[in-house]
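Posted in: Protein Modeling Q&A

I'm a second-year student putting together a small comparison for a lab meeting, and my supervisor asked me to include a predicted structure for Fe2OG dioxygenase domain-containing protein. I've never done this before, so apologies if this is the wrong subforum. The sequence is pasted below exactly as I got it from our records. If anyone can share the structure token output, I'd also love a short note on what stands out.
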Amino acid sequence: MQGDLFGNPPGNLPEGFRYQAGIVPRKLQEALLEALPELPFKPFDFHGYEGKRRVVSFGWKYDFDTETVRRIDAIPPLLLPLRQLAADFAGLPAEGLQQALVTEYDVGAPIGWHRDKAVFGDVVGISLLTSCTFRLRRKRAGRWERTSVILEPGSAYLLSGAARSEWEHSIPPVERLRYSVTFRELRSGIGAGGRA
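Accepted answer (user: helix_wrangler)
Welcome! Here is the predicted structure, written out as tokens:
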């Protein structure tokens, strides 16, 4: 973990944020990295703008145009051992992590500042293949609080509590190919139309 340009110490992480290296055993990482490139990735689409990263969702898919989620193909068996590891790390039931988003970051692909959509609850991310900087920020009294963590291959992070609801996160352009698998809870009260 590292501080940021504003001098925040590495221990100054948001309430509700957890990080742990070495969650995913090496053999599982190797099996995933062999299988993930074969998934039906599509360029990330945000209101007609295609991002540099490619994504594929399972369980539920968020539609940015309608601002709803809809059921899609179930999380494949390939990802179930990883979901169990993510759930154990986060202290959540595995079946509660109903949505999985697999992202392929090619060289130079970033993800801008954002908060995961409100239809989702806690978020558990798994980093694979190469490391990246995971930045966090929130505005307090007119000033930005910022900090960052280096996500190592095989590591996991949890966004819950204030880290989930008050802080934004982003990843600057990556220097090498990277994969991430993000598991999300679906908030209770989501109806058939995907709205709370």
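A couple of things worth pointing out for your meeting: The chain has one domain: 17-186. The longest strand covers residues 49-58.
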